[in-house]
Amino acid sequence: xxxxxEEVRIQGLGVIDEAVLELSPGFNVVTGETGAGKTMVVTGLxxxxxxxxxxxxxxxxxxxxxxxxxxxIEGGGRVAQQVEDVGGEVEGGELIISRTVSAEGRSxxxxxxxxxxxxxxxxxxxxxxxxxxxxxxxxLLQPARQRASLDRYAGNDLVKxxxxxxxxxxxxxxxxxxxxxxxxxxxxxxxxADLLRFGLREVEKVDPKxxxxxxxxxxxxxxxxxxxxxxxxxxxxxxxxxxPMEATGGADDVIxxxxxxxxxxxxxxxxxxxxxxxxxxxxxxxxxxxDVATDLAAYAESIESDPARLAAVQERRSVxxxxxxxxxxxxxxxxxxxxxxxxxxxxLEGDDERIGELTRELEELTERLxxxxxxxxxxxxxxxxxxxxxxxxxLTALAMPxxxxxxxxxxxxxxxxxGVDEVELRMAAHPAAPPLPLNKGASGGELSRVMLAIEVVFxxxxxxxxxxxxxxxxxxxxxxxxxxxxxxxxxxxxxxxxVVTHLPQVAAFAxxxxxxxxxxxxxxxxxxxVTLNHEGRxxxxxxxxxxxxxxxxxxxxxxxxxxxxxxxx
Length: 569
Prior knowledge:
Blueprint: E1 4-13, E2 16-22, E3 27-32, H1 38-48, E4 64-72, H2 78-85, E5 94-102, E6 107-111, E7 114-116, H3 118-125, E8 129-132, H4 143-154, H5 156-184, H6 186-206, H7 212-224, H8 226-241, H9 254-266, H10 273-302, H11 307-327, H12 331-349, H13 351-397, E9 404-416, E10 419-428, E11 436-437, H14 438-441, H15 444-458, E12 466-470, H16 478-491, E13 496-500, H17 504-507, E14 512-520, E15 525-531, H18 534-546, H19 552-568
Parallel strand pairs: 3-13, 3-14, 8-12, 12-13
Antiparallel strand pairs: 1-2, 1-4, 4-5, 5-6, 6-7, 9-10, 10-11, 14-15
Helix pairs in contact: 4-13, 5-13, 6-11, 6-12, 7-11, 8-10, 9-10, 11-12, 13-15, 15-16, 18-19
């Protein structure tokens, strides 16, 4: 489903007090007497899609102008996603856009119920509407738009070569960026490699082991307090078992005292089971104390003061601490750093070889890009010739028989994402005139007709769903006017078309006819918009033809025009 404008409400703009435009999906025409405010309809649409706000257009006496539009869009489509990205909402496939302009020049915009910068509406308009008026021909005057439109016109002939070029271009860009990084950052990478080598040499020289720093700390504590540890173990052993240097233990050591206690209890254990249990526990305690005493004696024998070893341990710890301070939190993390650093150094030391490989690849990609870009140019040149002929033929039917439109292709300075072609539409107003850019080769009215011819030729290839034309029929009449109406109707087969016109030959081809009616009390003029039925169209066309709504001749001519348009559709 193509997006379209369903309804536009305008308040306080120009002579329009309040008006509602109900638009059809096809060809909509807006007519009315001079000064009724037809152009304000186009101005309102322009404001709705981010156009420049002009406070002088606000209705005299009004505080502000308000334009609100209801659009029908696809729920999960590109436009809906853009709205959701700025926090707006699309409900039931309908999008509400609103714009206000105050008399002081302040402007505010809303998109899907969310306040947004006016620039957001301009960005959104690229996918929704193309306005072709006396003062607004910007969309197809943009070089990027012209190239994209020509590519769509080229169709399937361009799809495959453009896809191949795009893939090569992406890889070319990646390789060029990586090569640039390797070459421009050579000094930094060399400095990084030197630091890594220095660090690895330090680690290799020390040769730390995982957990070694903790083991050395324990050993240093033991060696630093060897005398105290041995004395404590000896004293404890003496207390438990007596002096080991004496043949017999003292009477006051723990083992002797436990022995006396056990003997006393053992003598009477048979008389009471409770006391017998205590005797067993005393025996168990005696065995445990004896084991501890034996271990204390062995420990005391093992502890030796070794100043040389202590100095060595302290020196080793100092060296490890220096490494840990630079490269990790402990000896294990130092080893992990060394492993990572070795890998990074291998990568850096391979830069020269890598630069050579990338340089060769870049040369191959450049050669391939050149060939693929040439193929794109060949396809575009052929499409440009067909397009120029088709638009020129359209202009002949639109009362511009001597005008000629061409597509100029020039080569860009470097490869781009779509090739090396810069595309520009040009027009020569007569055979002796040089081809000039569109905005310089035609007047305002002529430019609208040129744009109509271009849009008709592009019909179906251009993704913009709504076209707005203001004064597209300026300076023409008769057969040329019929041809303009016929082409607008043709364009409306694939898009929504909104046209402001003063020619009945154009209005007759519309699917929906809106008239701007002017009313005044002598001092205040107000305009509103009315949707016409068949009888209303006959009256309006009669007025446009003869200046009289009830002229029999005018009505007959109006009916003839409507019949011609109906048969043509």
